[in-house]
Write a structure and sequence with these properties.
It is built from 6 helices and 8 strands. By secondary structure, it is α+β, with helices and mostly antiparallel strands. It has one domain: Transcriptional regulator MraZ domain (Chemotaxis protein chec, 3-Layer(aba) Sandwich), CATH 3.40.1550.20. The longest helix is centred in the C-terminal third of the chain and has 15 residues.
Length: 142
């Protein structure tokens, strides 16, 4: 399970060191792609393949499916962590999330989100305000 949050710094080559806590789940490879709300998604390779399999089962005549496929796959980048658990975050993906040198890594159970730390703080403040509304959880049926 990928949980918690960590702040790391990219090195001069654009490499990100993944937290040791995630080592086993990410050791066989990862896929980075653009996420929603100006972040990046980092999936364990197997999880990204499962997502791809689910999308393949959807009809290509469904415009929402085509759009989601374009969103996720056209910007995807596969990577293998090195011995120090580092992966390169390509420049085009860093630009998508406005990531310069600092990265906030947030665990989302079966994937990670990579954020510009200031954008994360803004997103977190908005989330806190939204969660203060008691109807939020009721609408999720959790």
């Amino acid at each position: 399970m990928l949980i918690g949050q960590y702040e790391h710094t990219l090195d001069s080559k654009g490499r990100l060191t993944l937290p040791a806590e995630y080592g086993a789940e990410l050791a066989t490879g990862v896929v980075l792609t653009r996420g929603m709300e100006d972040c990046l998604y980092l999936f364990p390779r197997e999880e990204f393949e499962r997502l791809g399999n689910r999308l393949r089962e959807q009809s290509l005549t469904d415009s929402r499916t085509r759009k989601l496929r374009r969103w996720l796959f056209s910007q995807a980048h596969a990577a293998e962590p090195d011995r120090q658990r580092r992966i390169v975050v390509p420049q085009w993906l860093r630009e998508v999330a406005s990531i310069d040198d600092k990265v906030l890594i947030a665990g989302m159970d079966n994937y990670l989100e990579l954020w510009n730390p200031e954008s994360w703080r803004n997103q977190d403040q908005a989330l806190r305000a939204e969660l203060d509304d008691a109807d939020f959880f009721a609408s999720l049926n959790v």
